[in-house]
Amino acid sequence: SDIGSQRERVVTEEEWIQKWEMGNIGFHKEQRHPLLQKYLDVLLNGRSGLRIFFPLCGKAVEMKWLADMGHSVVGVEVSEQAVKDFFSEHSLPYCEEPVSEISGAKVFQSTSGNISLYCCSIYDLSSLIVGKFDAVWDRGALVAVNPCDRQRYASLMISLMEKNSSYLLVTVSYDPNKHKGPPFYVPESEVKSLFG
What we know:
methyltransferase, alpha/beta, Rossmann fold, 30% helix, thiopurine S-methyltransferase, seven-stranded mixed beta sheet, single chain, 196 residues, globular, S-adenosyl-L-methionine
């Protein structure tokens, strides 16, 4: 699969943090994603009270929507600004605690207890820290991960999934020679080789 000049492209965590601080967040959507609404039944698969994971969550509005349905939402985001914005924009009270297993990491938890957002590198997480999930909503994570880190990312996602998890993934399709990314182009063949 030809991903053009993107194969070597690297965006650092500091660059992502800076995007949030500068308000350069065109990737954030104020409305619920239409594909999540369309395929919600596939993600939930008739189940209620699920643990749903949001990798590289930003301040995704879908987190509150799913929590309001009675699900438990866990996200991870490198930008503390994004995490705090999520809680303030939804007027949700929260508490903030250090994550003892990860140096410098914090977890922000809604006082209702059904939303927990980890502020750290996604690669510092493991199922020992966050547990396993019944569902994953990946709207902008795989396409934001540096191409050289995709295998590491996919392996982590698989390790966080329960046996009968649902994984809903959104990618973008375009000519990777005309756009340097992110979002990065991830061909369907690569999605299949990463996730089976």
